[in-house]
Amino acid sequence: MTSKIAAGARIPLCHPADRERLSRLPWLVLAFVFVVAIMLRQVLPLNTDVSWLLTIGERVLDGQRLYVDIVEINPPMAVLAYLPGVALARALGMDPKYVIDAQILLLAAASLLVTWRILLISSILDSVRWVSLAIWATVVLTILPMQVFGQREHIATLTFLPALAVYALRSNREPLPFWAVLTAGIGCGITFAFKPFFAVPVILCIVLTAVRAHSWRVLIAPENVIAGGLVTAFSCYTYISYPEYFTIIYPLVRDTYLSWSMPASIVILNSATLIWAIAVISIVLRRREEKLDSATLATLLASLGFAVSFFLQRRGWAYHSYPMVATVLLAMAYVMTGVADVRSGSRRLDVASMAVLAATFVTGSLWFNATVYIGPIEEAVAGLKPNPRILMLSGEAAIGHPLVRTLHGAWVSRQENLWIREFVRLTRENNRIDAQ
Predict the structure, then answer these.
(1) Is 70 exceeded by the pLDDT of residue 434?
(2) Residue 66 lies in a domain
(3) 358 & 386 share domain
(4) 410: domain range?
């Protein structure tokens, strides 16, 4: 009897319809996409929040205590995610920005490679045109983020993709190797550790696997146990190592940041919601005569979960929406270009599909490229003295970051901006305050 290992070794690399993958052209295209992504990192400024988190990392390495000497509203995972890159940059004598950019691009490449290898295990998904899908996925993960590149939501999306592939196979009751289960569990745990809101896509994908596999035992599949154990361990570590977050910071966050929301029109009626709606409608229309396979269903449900988390955060900020936009664009491309047995029945429909993909990508790029105009502040500060020491008395974080890093200055404040003042102002503008 042929062993599973031997059978796995004979997994076809892709559907015969994709013979072009054997040529060098697809690899050259993928390399070109990464080159464009690298060039964009040199042109686009560092994200405001990422810039501040790098500054925190440098201060932590200098011996300052998070939530004591440094005031930060996010849980420790937001800082710890960048700390290895900051430490490596210091050891190499480099600007942390370049190390973090390189790490994110390497993470994107690794995430795509691992996800692809997991999907290749499936005998049910062997009719996928991987070349076109791989190119599109690389564009979505490296170029689409624009100004939100390197944000926590960007990293969380990259770490979640292998788990998404495992959930797709698990729902078909297909065997999975240990390395795939371990990678999925760790990636899923990291994603969840960034924000509690990310529990929604994880739960939806787990429920999908149980329903399609007709077995509730899937709920305690190894990858879920690993993810749950990782989140539990990290939560305990946070409580023990950073008690000030729970005793000092979180009460302030609860009473200021979490007490207000942007108007519903801003949270719901935006480019992210438009892209998501167009993509879902396109998927339904394209596959209206056929059932959606496990990969499409898992990705769609994950996107729905990320959409719910986006709306639950009640801000309508672009970077909050990246996971929902990225995953739904991957699902749409999979249906429109990846599934080899799709029968469009019309050349016009094929052209329309490409037009929709292009339109949603352009719209998404513009959405994620939005910035806060702060005027000629950088030139004015740069003209004062080299390596200035900067303090900002404003609630707008974009004024000081990444300005201080661009000018190789020193940030002398304990916090990113006057966030308590800013959140109280927003609360008064958008909500009623109970005097009691």
Answers:
(1) no
(2) yes
(3) no
(4) 377-430
Can you tell me the distance from the alpha carbon of 36 to that of 39, in angstroms, rounded to the nearest whole number?
5
**Location of structure tokens 């960007």:** 154
Q: Clarify whether residues 142 and 290 are in a common domain.
A: yes
Longest CA–CA span in the chain (Å) reads 77
The answer to which of 126-130, 269-273, 327-331, 361-365 has the lowest mean pLDDT is 126-130
CA 266/CA 328 separation, integer angstroms: 20
**Exposed e or buried b per residue across 284-319, where buried means at least 16 C-beta atoms within 10 angstroms of its C-beta:** eebbeeeebbbbbbbbbbbbbbbbebbbebbbbbbb
105 and 149 in contact (C-beta within 8 Å)? no
Domain end point (choices 340, 368, 396)? 368
Has residue 176 been placed in a domain? yes
Contact between 272 and 325 under an 8 Å Cβ cutoff? The reply is yes
Residue where a domain stops, chosen among 332, 348, 368:
368
Rounded to whole angstroms, how far apart are CA atoms 255 and 272? 28
pLDDT value of position 353: 81
- Do residues 402 and 320 share a domain? no
Tokens 């994908």 label which residue?
205
Q: Say how many domains are in the chain.
A: 2
- Predicted pLDDT at 62: 96
The pLDDT value recorded for residue 17 is: 46
Angle at the Cα of 93 from the Cα atoms of 92 and 98, rounded to 5 degrees: 80
Per-residue pLDDT tens over the stretch 187-202: 999 999 999 999 999 9
- In the Cβ-directed half-sphere of 433, how many Cα atoms lie within 13 Å? 11
Per-residue confidence (pLDDT) for residue 22, from 0 to 100: 47
Picking from 203, 172, 199, the residue whose alpha carbon sits closest to that of residue 292 is 172
Residue 1 lies in a domain: no
Q: Is 2 among the domain residues? A: no
- Given a contact cutoff of 8 angstroms between Cβ atoms, the answer to whether 56 and 81 are in contact is no
Among the listed residues 209, 174, 173, the one whose alpha carbon sits nearest the alpha carbon of residue 188: 209
Q: How far is CA 172 from the centre of its chain?
A: 26
Please report which confidence band the pLDDT of residue 351 belongs to, taking 50, 70 and 90 as the band edges: confident
Confidence at residue 430, expressed as pLDDT on a 0 to 100 scale? 64
* 51 in Cβ contact with 398 (< 8 Å): no
Mean model confidence pLDDT for the chain: 89
Same domain, 171 and 205: yes
In this prediction, what percent of the chain has a pLDDT beyond 90? 69
Q: Do both 302 and 275 map to the same domain?
A: yes
State the pLDDT at residue 21.
Answer: 46
Owner of token pair 């849980």: 75
